[in-house]
Amino acid sequence: MRIGTLHMFRQGISSILDQQSRLLKTQNQLAVGKRIVNPSDDPTGSAQLIGLSETSKTTAQFQRNILAVRTRLELQDGVLGSVGDALQRVRELTVSALNDTNGADERIAIAAEVRQLANNAMGLANHKDGNGQYMFAGFQVLTVPFSETAPGVFSYAGDQGQRQIQIGPARQLADGDSGQAVFMDIADGSGGFEDIFTTLENLATDLEANAPNDSSLDQLDRTMDHLLRARASAGARLNALESQENINGALLVQLEQTRSTIEDLDYAEAATRLSQESVILQAAQQSFVKVQNLNLFNFL
Amino acid sequence: MAVGLLGTAVSGLQAFQRSLSVAGHNISNANTEGYTRQRVELGTRQPSFTGQGYIGNGVHVEGVRRMFDQFVVDRLRETSSSTSQYETLFQFSGRVSDILGDADAGLSAGLESFFDAVQTVADDPASIPARQLLLSESDSLVARFHNLDSQLKSIGAEIDANLGNIVTEINGLSAAIADTNKNIAEATSQGSGETPNDLLDKRDQMVNRLSELVFVRTVEQDDGALNVFVGSGQSLVTGFLASPLQTVVNDFDSSRTEVAIVNSGATAVISESLTGGKLGAVLDFRDQVLTPAENSLGRIAVSLASEFNRQHTLGMDFDGAPGLDYFSITSPQTAASTGNTGAATVSASFDTANMASLTTDDYVLSFGGAAWSLNRLSDNQAVAMTGSGSAADPFVVDGLSIEIAGGAVAGDRFQIRPTRSGSFAMGLLINNPREIAAAAPAAAAAPGDNSNALLLAGLQSGQTMENGSTNFQGAYGQLISKLGTQTFSAQVTAEAQGALLLQAQESRDTLSGVNLDEEAADLIRFQQAYQAIAQVISVADSTFQTLLNAVGR
User: Fold this and answer.
1) Closest approach of chain A CAs to the CA of B491, in angstroms?
2) B411 burial via Cβ count (<10 Å: 0-12, 13-18, 19+)
3) Contact A79/A234 with Cβ under 8 angstroms?
4) Cα separation, B379 vs B375, whole angstroms
5) Which of A147, B389, B495, B519 has its CB 3.0 to 4.6 Å from that of B404, i.e. a possible disulfide?
6) What separation in angstroms does the CA of A221 have from each of A16, A95, A119, A228, B506?
């Protein structure tokens, strides 16, 4: 078969160019460390990467949400712990005050300390979180929730809102409890409710009147129980938070592995490919020069 | 006798001179693209009758033959047409898929940051900085939609400019082919049937270049002129006459360029029937890659804005006021054909209850005299509508609500482009962080309530697109995958066509290409023959001298 001289040239050049572009592609992959440089390298893989990136970003956001919830729940636990300590001290005072060895003067002194502790409790109930928001105000986080509107009359200006935070794709968790639930809705043993401040106020008033009352001790116990339950429920949430955090963490690892399988370059394979392609290019160049030198005119 | 020998010798001298000069011509043109190898055809001269029988009179040149095969040339044209088509398609599609698929600059990262910011508000709805962050992320998302859309639009503008340039180039070539037709016809008639080989090469080369621009078919006339047809048989060159192509404005869309042909004063749009070459690639790219990509991006913008607005207006803001529309959305584009004769006007809006059935298609709404019908622009398939088109009972189809006012005349047509300007026209309506409706509606303001923010954040995974089968980012993933596939298949086809082109060039060169070794051998052959025949002259001369000497003695 006869071959056009121009075609021989064209064929030689075209195989060199082909090989060069393959080499460039591999070199580019090695430079960025990715198997998929352009979407057309793997259209399905590119779409998968978008989905993976979305899931992993969302999961990372859930982990940040978990951190925020944990901070708040731990802060709430600390505050409620302090309130519990105050109540424990009140309880000790009340028990000793109930002892008949105490006279009116002693009881007035004890009442003063109870009032002091009640003030502390009020302060703790109006505690602000790190962002300057009231922790026990429900959704009314910018309003001071508890106040004594008249001597011995306590009111709650918050609401019963309890904020849910997304901590997993289908998992929400409350990041706190409203002041209503923690400090106001405490059963009074006869089907009604009494708030913690009124309980303390009644106790102090009775002591000041030198008429301590056994039933106020019962109410104090109910209040302490109530707070413990609130802390226990928050503690359970902290546990749930931890298990969700582990689930999210495992998912993140798995997502990263999948991403890496789809997107990342197998360096060993690519490096081998690069040297193979270099050899082929060199061969194409050398054979081109050789073939181009073969010409009958050289012998004329 | 001797005179006869001399005559024979001279005929050989002449024949081998011709052969040498043609070999020289071949060697000179060894690197001329499109040159067809020529060969001197030799034949014996008419013999002289003598009493002893017929005595040969030497050699004569029967003609200079062009080593050419129409079939091989046609195949070369076809493959060069598709190679340039798919290479162009690959280049343009690759640009679109790289722009939208970029991990940092694409939409995906923007959607993620936006919804992360919504989560941040859900975590701490009373925090003004968190709300401010959401506003600036919303702003960035809108800017990202605008930026991606304007990059697509600038490719569109480049396409239009390209169309103009290609049309000019085609017109230049077809005029030159018509001219060359004339020269060839004249040369053929003057040469009493001998073909002007180099002119034919020149014309073939021009047709080859034309094939790279658009797929053409050719028919050769008896007088040697070549007729060139384009598209579905529109004649680009007839004999000595070229019909120019022209760019014209689309009937529905003044920003869109179409290609028309001017034949005896009449202009006809032929964009749809043009295939192959750069021109076919550019038109295909616009219809099958660029416009769908713009529509898909627009659809994500419209769906996101509409879903977000729906949920946002269900909530309550920082100060206890009901939530307002968050993003601005533009209505679907509608355009009347410039050929309409009736007074009807068409307006379309989104059917917000059925946004999930919104498609990326454009439509043509046409009036048949009694009834309206709707066809998809991409494949011209009819789409069934419900309703009557009146204001009270609009046509409802694919997430759209279409209303017609005024009287239409049969044949009137309107184009509806639901999401074309979706990304470009998207805007942020809220600029005060307190207006973000993170709370559920209540009697009083509830700054710490995140109930609505949670629902807004939930929209990220909501299956609100493609008939409820995917979410915003999923729809974007589908777009990237489609663009990647289009680019990949254009690349693979371009490579395959490139290989076929190389084969076609090889088979053309096998027949028509110059081989220098062969020409070198021919040179030796003809040179030796020339030397030999020169010896014959010398022999004839010495024979004659011998005779003269004998007589003179």
Assistant:
1) 9
2) middle
3) no
4) 8
5) B389
6) 90, 12, 19, 10, 101
- Write the Ramachandran bin of B294: left for phi over 0, alpha for psi from -120 to 50, otherwise beta: alpha
Pair B406, B344: CB distance under 8 Å? yes
| Beta-carbon count within 10 A of B278 CB | 22
Bridge partners of residue B375, in order along the sequence? B364, B382
The CATH number of residue A155's host domain is: 1.20.1330.10
Distance CA B531, CA A165 (A): 104
Yes or no, beta carbons of A58 and B460 under 8 Å apart:
yes
DSSP per-residue codes, B396-433 = EETTEEEEEES---TT-EEEEESSTTTTTT-EE----G
- For chain A, residues with pLDDT lower than 50 are none
Min Cα distance A29 → chain B (Å) is: 15
Instruction: Give the bridge partners for A173, in sequence order.
Output: A165
Tokens representing residue B14 in the block: 């002449």
B458-491: b or e for each residue (b if 16 or more CB lie within 10 Å)? bbbbbebbbeeebbbbbbbbbbbbbbbbbbbbbb
Domain that holds residue A210: 63-230
Q: How many residues does this entry show for chain B?
A: 553
Q: Are A138 and A159 in contact (CB under 8 A)?
A: yes
**Interface membership of A190 toward B (CB under 8 Å):** no
Q: Is residue B552 over pLDDT 80?
A: no
Query: What would the mean pLDDT of B164-169 be, rounded to a whole number?
Result: 96
| Residues sharing a CB contact under 8 Å with residue A58, sequence separation 6 or more, in sequence order | A169, B112, B115, B460, B461
The pairs formed by B368-377 with CB atoms below 8 angstroms and a separation of 24 or more are B368/B410, B369/B410, B372/B404, B372/B408, B374/B402, B374/B416, B377/B415
Instruction: Report how far apart, in Å, the C-alpha atoms of B163 and of each of B214, B258, B284, B286, B292 are.
Output: 11, 8, 12, 11, 19
Cβ distance A138 to B30 less than 8 Å, yes or no, reads: no
Residues 110-169 of A with CB under 8 A from B: 131, 133, 137-142, 159, 161, 163-166, 169
**C-alpha span between B321 and B312 (Å, rounded):** 12
| Nearest-by-CA chain B residue for A66 | B123
List the single residue in B with minimal CA-CA distance to A139. Answer: B448
Cβ distance A50 to B505 less than 8 Å, yes or no, reads no
Nearest to B519 by CA among A1, A292, A5, A291: A5
- Could you read off the pLDDT of B443-489 as tens digits, one per residue? 889 999 999 999 999 999 999 999 999 999 999 999 999 999 999 99
Six-digit token string for A286: 């050398």
In a domain, A117, yes or no: yes
CB nearest to A163's CB, from B30, B127, B450: B450
**ipTM, 2 dp:** 0.86
> Does residue A77 fall inside a structural domain?
yes
pLDDT of B1 over the 60 cut: no
CB-hemisphere CA count at 13 Å for B258?
16
Contact in structure between B229 and B216 (CB atoms under 8 Å):
yes
Q: Which residue in the block uniquely carries the two structure tokens 């693979």?
A: B492
| Distance (Å, whole) CA B59 – CA B10 | 9
In chain A, the number of structural domains is 1
Rg, C-alpha atoms of chain B: 37
Please choose, from the candidates A85, A88, A110, A87, the residue with its C-alpha nearest in 3D space to the C-alpha of residue A97: A110
Pairing mode, if any, of strands B245-249 and B241-242? unpaired
Position B229 pLDDT exceeds 60: yes
Identify each DSSP E strand in A37-192 by its residue range: 146-150, 153-156, 164-168, 171-174
Residue A48 lies in a domain: no
CA angle B283, B284, B289 (to 5 degrees): 115
Task: Assess if residue A265 is contained within a domain.
Answer: no
The single-letter DSSP state of residue B106 is S
B93 CB neighbours in chain A (<8 A) are 40
